[in-house]
Automatic annotation (TrEMBL):
Subcellular location: Secreted, Extracellular space
GO biological process: proteolysis
Entries under PROSITE patterns matching the protein: ALDEHYDE_DEHYDR_CYS (PS00070), SEDOLISIN (PS51695)
SMART domains referenced in this protein's UniProt entry, alphabetically: Pro-kuma_activ
GO cellular component: extracellular region
PANTHER family in UniProt: PROTEASE S8 TRIPEPTIDYL PEPTIDASE I CLN2 (PTHR14218), SERINE PROTEASE AORO, PUTATIVE (AFU_ORTHOLOGUE AFUA_6G10250)-RELATED (PTHR14218:SF19)
Native organism: Phialocephala subalpina
Name of protein: tripeptidyl-peptidase II
Keyword hit for Lyase: no
Required cofactor names: Ca(2+)
Length: 642
């Protein structure tokens, strides 16, 4: 961790025991289970060591966020498409003066003088330095040092903490407290091409022909079930080229993952000849990011190459913007991106959760020394991200806060898409949970256990995109449905342990339970029908031909599905803009109100956790959502709206 020096905090000091919380205090957050890779060290903390503490204040009006968003994105609303300015969003949600005063009074009464408080610009955070002794007394807790058993990293944490009951409603969460590190996982897999090694066709004037022998495979619509190309996707979803209309499409990548221009060129020369060699995304570097070329491997380049090659090809001649996020040392989280898009979400001088988010400037570990980007980037109309966590990796309060930020982006007219995961009902790396509701984030190897939903796919304010595949020897036409992806990867899907069901999907989920109730019990997943189901939609996720590190590979994953769906939304936005209308913004209410604009996927499943997972059925299902896009039908739905 960057936020305190462990050396300063260890030392010989008297042992102490926190007093039991007084009656007017309530436990605000509590860790139910110890994370397996962290072990508590039996050392005494130096009671005078300083901890930089941050209190995240609850924002106002969040309880109305859903209604505000429906007002601008429900197809039956008279305010459809009337998106908000970032300024209006900030004013609407910033914490009230009364909340700020109440929390500050508590600090002052606890001996943390006014002079020590620092407010963030957004007014969402109060920051101050406290000694271990002050922190324990303030929060009625005991702090301990934990060691990461994998990398030896040390971390300061407590197991629960309390705040006075009368101010609890004003506090989102406090750091550092119960939270632990989690890393963002990318979602894509590769399979090398079986016996036929794909080679690359030399194209005059495009790429250097010496590195690129003749391919033995001709890509065409007859072999889309083996090789997905941009042309296959256009045929499957019945769309054509982009236009030059004013629209925008952002693809998010996290350093050190990076695209190689040579790979983009190789892709164009094989699969998208009209795009000139050298065509790349518009690059927005966030928080000291670099599009690094120092290390090159499938892990370094596969995700970025895939996302950008397909996004660029499908919306061409429209430009794609790359949000390359995080430096090469700290890495970054979704919050670092969100900070760059919305000044009211970040705090100047740091303010993210040091446990999960990279904090810049990075003074401790040799990373980016500049200030974090804060509201410096105007969000694109569509933003696709192919990375994700397990819901159980992160505290619920952290997820709710981030999810509300996606709500704000929806208010601003942004469509936010996330891949739904590649392990079916299991989580990243195929792991399942050992406890009910995935509490505590303890995972097993995945042959049994509780289903492990992904985040942010379960946030009701994003559009979660699952994966399909062309049926074996299947004909590729817009009228021939695919099936759920069962090649190399399984479409992430299921039900949240954190988020309640949004009304826009209530009837679709109810129909699913009425007509196709799965046989699993509450031991495997929350079957209460009161929680968010995901994914919302799907698109092909198998056998993508992608140029990576100078060769064509086949790539699999909802990682592919999300940028493809995003490209289709971008093409719809172009047509709306050409018709003098706004971008579509938050998609889900319109999508669920128009299931007929999708090709329903009714075969295949998303196995995991020692089960066959859920099954794709008629109507919405937790494998492929509403189905795959039917572009002309979706276009006419969205063009008919104001
Ligand atoms: C906490 O202490 C550090 C190190 O002295 C200092 O840089 C920082 O500004 C302090 N933070 C606050 C909120 O006073
Ligand atoms: C799509 O782009 C290609 C290459 O520029 C062009 O040949 C083709 O006519 C375009 N198709 C449509 C429908 O505009
Ligand atoms: C594709 O869309 C066009 C309208 O743009 C429609 O006329 C055609 O029938 C569609 N093709 C299929 C196979 O559905
Ligand atoms: C399912 O979710 C609901 C709503 O959050 C909750 O009340 C219930 O306890 C959950 N059930 C289980 C078995 O976790």
């Amino acid at each position: 961790m960057k936020f305190f020096s462990t050396l300063a905090i260890l030392g010989l000091a008297a042992s102490s025991f926190a007093a039991p919380a007084p009656p007017n205090h309530v436990v605000h957050e509590k860790r139910e289970h110890q994370l397996e890779k962290w072990s508590k060290r039996n050392v005494k903390l130096n009671r005078d060591a300083l901890i930089p503490m941050s209190i995240g204040l609850t924002q106002r009006n969040l309880d109305q966020g859903y209604e505000f968003l429906m007002d601008v994105s429900h197809p039956e609303s008279k305010n459809y498409g009337k998106h908000w300015s970032m300024e209006k969003i900030k004013e609407t949600f910033k914490p009230s003066d009364a909340a700020i005063e109440a929390v500050k009074s508590w600090l002052i009464e606890s001996g943390i003088e006014k002079e020590r408080h620092q407010m963030s610009n957004s007014l969402a955070w109060i920051r101050f330095n406290v000694t271990v002794e002050e922190a324990e007394s303030l929060l009625k807790t005991d702090y301990h040092i934990y060691t990461n058993t994998e990398n030896g990293k040390q971390h300061l944490a407590c197991e629960d903490y309390s705040v006075p009951a009368h101010i609890q409603e004003h506090i989102d969460f406090i750091t550092p407290t119960i939270h632990f590190d989690a890393t963002v996982k990318k979602e894509k897999k590769r399979r090398s091409l079986d016996t036929r090694e794909l080679k690359v066709k030399p194209v005059p004037g495009a790429v250097s022909p010496d590195a690129v022998p003749q391919p033995q495979v001709t890509f065409n619509l007859a072999n889309c079930y083996e090789y997905i190309t941009p042309d296959c996707l256009r045929a499957l979803y019945n769309f054509t080229n982009g236009t030059l209309a004013q629209s925008s499409y952002g693809i998010v990548e996290y350093t050190p993952q990076a695209y190689l221009q040579t790979d983009l060129n190789l892709f164009y020369s094989n699969l998208q000849r009209q795009i000139a060699s050298g065509t790349g995304p518009t690059v927005d570097l966030i928080d000291g990011a670099t599009v690094q070329t120092t290390t090159q491997s499938f892990d370094d380049n596969g995700e970025s190459d895939l996302d950008l090659q397909y996004a660029i090809a499908l919306v061409y001649p429209q430009k794609v913007t790359l949000y390359q996020t995080g430096d090469a040392v700290e890495g970054a989280s979704f919050n670092n991106l969100l900070d760059a898009l919305d000044a009211s979400y970040c705090t100047s001088g740091g303010g993210d959760d040091a446990t999960y988010d990279a904090i810049y400037p990075d003074t401790a570990s040799g990373g980016y020394k500049g200030a974090a980007n804060c509201g410096t980037i105007t969000p694109a109309s569509v933003i696709s991200t192919s990375y994700g966590y397990n819901e159980a990796d992160l505290p619920a309060a952290y997820e709710v806060r981030q999810c509300n930020e996606y709500m704000k982006l929806g208010l601003a007219g942004v469509s936010v898409l996330y891949s739904s995961g590649d392990y079916g009902v299991a989580g990243n790396s195929g792991q399942c949970c050992t406890a009910a509701k995935c509490a505590g984030g303890t995972y097993n190897s995945g042959s049994s256990g509780t289903f492990n939903p992904s985040f942010p796919g379960t946030c009701p304010y994003v559009t979660s995109v699952g994966a399909t595949q062309v049926k074996p020897n299947g004909l590729v036409t817009a009228t021939n449905p695919e099936e759920a992806c069962e090649t190399v990867i399984y479409s992430g899907g299921g039900f949240s342990n954190v988020f309640a069901i949004p009304s826009y999907q209530a009837s679709a989920v109810a129909t699913y339970f009425t007509s196709h109730k799965p046989t699993y019990t509450a031991t495997q997943y929350n079957n209460s029908q009161t929680v968010r189901g995901y994914p919302d939609v799907s698109a092909n996720g198998a056998n993508y031909v992608v140029a990576v590190d100078g060769a064509l590979s086949l790539v699999y994953g909802t990682s592919a599905s999300s940028p493809v769906f995003g490209a289709i939304v971008t093409l719809i936005n172009e047509q709306r803009v050409a018709a003098g209308k706004s971008a579509v913004g938050f998609l889900n209410p319109t999508l669920y109100a128009n299931p007929g604009a999708f090709t329903d996927i009714i075969t295949g499943g998303n196995q995991g956790c020692g089960t066959s997972g859920f099954t794709a059925v008629a109507g919405w299902d937790p494998v492929t959502g509403l189905g795959t896009p039917n572009y002309p039908a979706l276009l006419s739905v969205f063009l008919a709206l104001a």
